[in-house]
Amino acid sequence: MGAETEPFRAVPAEVRPYLAELVRRTRAVCGPGLTGVVAVGSLALGDYRHGRSDVDVTVLVPGPPPAAVLRELADALDHRRLPCPAAGLELVVYAADFARRPSGAAGYLLDLNTGAHLPGRAAFGPDGGPSFWYAIDRAVAHQSGLALYGPPAAEVIAAPRAADLHAALRASVREHGDGTGHLADNRVLNGCRAVAYCRTGRWLAKRDAARQLAATEGHFRPLIEAAVHSFERPRTAALPLPAAQVREFLGWARARVDEHAPAADA
Q: Which of 13, 122, 148, 215 lies 20 to 30 A from 265 at CA?
């Protein structure tokens, strides 16, 4: 990789060759105008767990590029053509001008999910689904994103405004409270991360946020510790958690997020 070696030293060895090839293919498809490729999510927060975590990547392009370029990129990175060693790849492409502006909108040009443990998805522009995932991911990227290609993440990806980010956090906790399509341990840990962010103003890795809350919230400590224990297992071996306790915790987490609304909206 030559001069490109240095950025990849910050990512786990299990996914380093994959990410290097992902960047190579993205550059080949997008051409010299490519603005950046940034590792986000658990990779950025230093809590990637092989067999459990996804590989989360944000791509920034001068845009919007021709639709054929986005389709070619989705095809080049499809798990069937570039096998993902992690649970899956979640890759989002934004126009660079959009990513530099604070926004709570979804705003993507391509949302690609592919991998052994992810339902396949390639959406070419917002499709009316929830937008909070994208706002939160951009906030994490602005704080901690790892630039695999291009300038530092904070220079090219803006965090949403406080009011938009608070709305995204509320929507996230509400969705995890509903529980559809999410592992119970991940629901609890996402709730921990939302509360920890409201208390500290920093994005923590899920397990770090969980340990912080377990130390202060004795009533929920057994549930949180059980969620961490389950999260440390492969995704296919996640443990069941008491449904009523999970609902109670997420109701509590939503109330804690709501308490921060005045400061967030100021």
A: 215
